Amino acid sequence: MTPHCPPSALWGTTTPLSPPSASPTTATQVRTESGGGGGGPITALLSPHIVVLLAVMLALPPTLRLEGLPRSFAAVQLHFHWGRSGHTEGAEHLLDGHRAPAEMHVVHYDAERYANASEAQHHAAGLAVLGVLLEVGDEPNAAYANILSHLGSIRYAGQTTSIPSFNVQELLPKRLDRYYRYNGSLTTPPCLQSVIWTVFQQPVRISMAQLEQLQGSLYATAADEPSVEHLEDNFRDPQDLNQRPVLASFSSSQGYSTGEVIAIVFGTVLGCFGLFLAVHFVNKRLWQHPEDPGTGRRFQGLLPTRGFR
């Protein structure tokens, strides 16, 4: 097991999120001003976070900025957390007690107040991190394939590679308006209390083969070391909230979007209209042919007769 932040409540605040305990807030939808890197290559690095804790990190262009926060936050890197081969738990945040197989973090820093992320991490709200939960689906995710296909070039600690620019927006879930937000810390050393966390409620799906690429193709040791150690379980367990509020951008009773509600209402109206036509057609047939084709007797119980009052 690779070392993580100390267990002290003063350090870690990775939160077991639960929608029933979240408070609604009128938060702005999360958007990015620029989804790519201006066409230039992006550097992928297998790098240790103090001692032997490692994660795959991608250096992002500073032109990628995060909206919905009080100041301008510029993207600096993204990285992944996952479990071990054969296991389906590796995320750092829990929703309703469920831990997803993996989690992606997109790290931003307050570009209006600080020169870089190294300076910003020492100040409250100096960093803003987007958390995306990764679940397993039936089909491979093309957006994530652009990253995962290059893991073979950085299998050992300290190795780097260059990958083509890509649209970061494609790595995020469709429902950017549904998320949880709280103030916390970095989940890797130095574990500083400087992060505005935004964790999306909707997961992104990757294939089992793509998850296994993360779980089994990387090593926590350098290429020239005599013994190798798989890079796995590089996630941190949830920590207590310590009376910190977790805000939600939606109400717990807000189960459907406006478009979904319109679709449901429209479908219900069409269904009722179809049922009306079916009943009308059957009733019309009975009026035109009021005899049982098997017995020749009239349907006295179904059709009104003359003299009925």
TrEMBL record:
EC number, UniProt record: 4.2.1.1
Gene coding for it: CA14
Region listing for Disordered, in residue ranges: 1-39
Alphabetic keyword roster: Glycoprotein, Lyase, Membrane, Metal-binding, Transmembrane, Transmembrane helix, Zinc
SUPFAM superfamilies xrefs: Carbonic anhydrase
GO cellular component, one term: plasma membrane
GO molecular function, one term: carbonate dehydratase activity
Family the UniProt entry places it in: Belongs to the alpha-carbonic anhydrase family.
Domain of life: Eukaryota
Domain Alpha-carbonic anhydrase: residue ranges: 1-250
Membrane-spanning parts: 261-282
Organism: Coturnix japonica
Official protein name in the record: carbonic anhydrase
